Amino acid sequence: MLTCRQATQLLSEKQDRALLLREQSNLQLHLLTCRSCRRYGKQIKTLSQLSKEFKKFDH
């Protein structure tokens, strides 16, 4: 089982690269049991989307 630190690291890396199958499986297992990490995942996904939208207006 991943620690929260490992899970949040993978959630961050997931924004930049495809996770290995093992990493994805371990992350999903952790997220099933950890509300804090699920919330973190939603927050960084939202920030990433907002950043992409902001870049459209910046040009």
Secondary structure layout:
Layout: H1 4-14, H2 21-33, H3 35-58
Helix pairs in contact: 1-2, 1-3
Structure report:
The protein is an all-alpha fold and 59 residues long. The chain has one domain. Helices cover 81% and strands 0% of the residues. It has helices spanning 4-14, 21-33, 35-58. It is elongated and about 45 Å long. Residues 4-38 form the Putative zinc-finger domain. It comes from Acinetobacter baylyi. This is Putative zinc-finger domain-containing protein. InterPro entries: Znf_put (IPR027383).
| Percentage of residues in strands | under 5%
Gross geometry: elongated
The secondary-structure class comes to mainly alpha
Task: Tell me the domain tally.
Answer: 1
Spatial extent as radius of gyration = 13 Å
Q: N-to-C SSE series?
A: HHH
Amino-to-carboxy terminus distance: 43 Å
> Can you give the mean pLDDT?
93
Organism: Acinetobacter baylyi
Protein name: Putative zinc-finger domain-containing protein
Domain Putative zinc-finger: 4-38
Can you describe this structure in just a few lines?
The protein has 59 residues and is mostly helical. The protein has one domain.
